Inverse folding.
């Protein structure tokens, strides 16, 4: 029933925008800057990198309306503001489209080519953001749309996604916060990750990783030997770590109202079980200098 | 002294013996009553006129003021799905009624249960986010992407309640539209 209602809503939405005239305008800009900031709504932001020294930006503004004259008028109401100062460029979408009787349908899509070392700030909503590769610092705030990050390997990265998915290949040195969307990443290294109301799936983790999840699962396919610290706090969800190296790790598990399962390859050094609380200290072969620490509440933990 | 007074004084005795004609008192009282009614009638008419003028003023204001409140001129601040189209209003009504059933079912659970407490907090957050989307729907000129986000917000709230339903083993009333 629920699916039918969503499909009906999508159909109603589609039919409301049928047979419309389209007006389009393209804005092209080029700058030399060390930091680029883009603030946009109702469109996609696509960032790729190149070997040149310039930032090249193309913005395509598209307006659909039943009346061609109205579409042209609305097109004039959307402008791109550019401010350059001290090596920083701030680009903001200014939308002054007025109320109409029907629904508005317009998109502002950004395509940017920039040097890999550029520091990037992106704020986007009601559209998707794709960032191929950034070596400068990255600050992304994405709402009501998905975010894809090829690689973010700068020294200071911040990624926030609300009501959308986060997909990516490699994220390092980052604070990540995802709410109401799933995250699927190939590799995390030196990352602090907060995931709420969605699942966090990671293929590999390395370095120091701190994860705080609630109302969603956290799954790791491979714990690389390069992982020095993994600190997980989980509420109302499952934690599953697969292929944990059996050498050199101490694994501390504790929690309440939770179940704990671990590979027999680990030796239990200490354990305590109360009515609702449990804790285990496990050791692989050799002296455990690296630490995996998992605290779970109302969930399940599996380490193997 | 007038001639009539002189005449009455001279013939006083003749007047003292005369009685008024029959029915004089009734006729006198009727005349008095009529005068009183006339006075009352003029008061009622005055208030009727005042009321009529008031009705005309209110009617005129209700016709004129909405012209000044046209969406082009006034910032209402937010728009509901029902104000976009009747069909989307039906969708809004469906989700509102499903959520109302969900909230009623959640009210039977213990608010001390940390998972219920956490879910209730998040439902409140999602409700606030929905209000914010209603504002953005207005500000964007009813953009389709905001409408999609509003329906997604309903779906997330319902999903959250259904996830709790499975875990805490309560059942929503199974009414359908």
């Amino acid at each position: 029933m629920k699916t039918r209602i969503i499909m009906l809503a999508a159909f109603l939405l589609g039919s409301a925008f049928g047979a419309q005239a389209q007006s389009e305008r393209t804005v092209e800009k080029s700058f030399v800057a060390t930091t680029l900031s883009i603030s946009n709504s109702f469109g996609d932001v696509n960032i790729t990198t190149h070997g040149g020294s310039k930032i090249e930006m193309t913005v395509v503004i598209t307006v659909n309306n039943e009346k061609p004259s109205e579409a042209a008028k609305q097109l004039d109401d959307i402008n791109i503001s550019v401010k350059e100062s001290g090596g920083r460029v701030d680009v903001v979408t200014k939308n002054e489209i007025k109320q109409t009787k029907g629904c508005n349908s317009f998109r502002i899509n950004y395509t940017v080519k920039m040097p890999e070392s550029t520091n990037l700030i992106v704020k986007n909503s009601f559209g998707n953001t794709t960032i191929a590769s950034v070596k400068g610092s990255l600050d992304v705030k994405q709402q009501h749309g998905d975010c894809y990050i090829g690689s973010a390997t700068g020294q200071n990265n911040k990624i926030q996604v609300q009501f959308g998915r986060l997909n990516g290949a490699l994220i390092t040195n980052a604070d990540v916060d995802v709410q109401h969307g799933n995250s699927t990443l190939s590799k995390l290294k030196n990352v602090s990750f907060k995931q709420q109301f969605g699942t966090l799936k990671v293929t590999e983790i390395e370095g120091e990783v701190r994860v705080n999840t609630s109302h969603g699962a956290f799954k790791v396919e491979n714990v690389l030997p390069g992982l020095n610290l993994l600190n997980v706090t989980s509420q109302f969800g499952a934690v599953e770590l697969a292929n944990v190296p059996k050498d050199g790790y101490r694994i501390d598990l504790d929690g309440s109202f939770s179940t704990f399962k671990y590979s027999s390859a680990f030796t239990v050094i200490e354990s305590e079980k109360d009515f609702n609380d449990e804790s285990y200290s496990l050791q692989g072969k050799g002296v455990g200098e690296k630490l995996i620490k998992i605290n779970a509440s109302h969930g399940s933990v599996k380490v193997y | 002294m007038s001639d009539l007074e002189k005449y009455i004084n001279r013939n006083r005795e003749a007047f003292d013996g005369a009685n008024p004609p029959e029915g004089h008192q009734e006729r006198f009282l009727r005349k008095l009553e009529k005068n009183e009614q006339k006075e009352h009638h003029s008061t009622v008419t005055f208030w009727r006129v005042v009321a009529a003028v008031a009705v005309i003023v209110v009617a005129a204001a209700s016709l004129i003021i909405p012209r000044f409140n046209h969406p082009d001129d006034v910032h209402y601040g937010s728009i509901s799905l029902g104000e976009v189209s009747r069909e989307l209003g039906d969708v809004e009504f469906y989700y509102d009624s499903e959520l109302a059933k969900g909230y009623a079912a959640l009210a039977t659970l213990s608010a001390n249960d940390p998972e219920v407490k956490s879910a209730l907090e998040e439902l409140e957050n999602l409700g606030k986010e929905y209000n914010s989307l209603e504002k953005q729907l207005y500000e964007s000129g009813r953009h389709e992407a905001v409408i999609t986000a509003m329906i997604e917000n309903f779906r997330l709230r319902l999903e959250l309640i259904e996830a709790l339903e499975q875990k805490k083993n309560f059942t929503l009333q199974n009414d359908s539209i």
Notes: The longest strand of chain A covers residues 218-235. The interface with chain B takes residues 1-2, 5-6, 8-10, 12-13, 16-17, 41-42, 95, 97-100, 102-106, 126-127, 144, 163, 180, 197, 214-215, 235-236, 297-298 of chain A (CB under 8 Å). Chain A has a mean pLDDT of 92. The helical segments of chain A are 2-16, 68-76.
